[in-house]
Amino acid sequence: MRIELEFLDMDKVVLHNNEMVYKIDESIAYPNAGDRVYIEGMLYEVKERDFIYLSGAAGIDLKISFWCEEVQRK
Length: 74
Prior knowledge:
mainly beta, elongated, 5 strands, 49% strand, 74 residues
């Protein structure tokens, strides 16, 4: 199975420069809403996520979009 991960801000702007496509043979954990993630040196909180199951014709079977908000450091 080939999975694409996409991290977006709340305005639908992609937060990373590199394509994130992975070949997965086992189940793995993905961030949930409320989890914090580092992307390109910045800290974000995942607000929600969407799963889109594709036909695999374009080489991708599943696309997971994570909607994130930047965490302000104190």
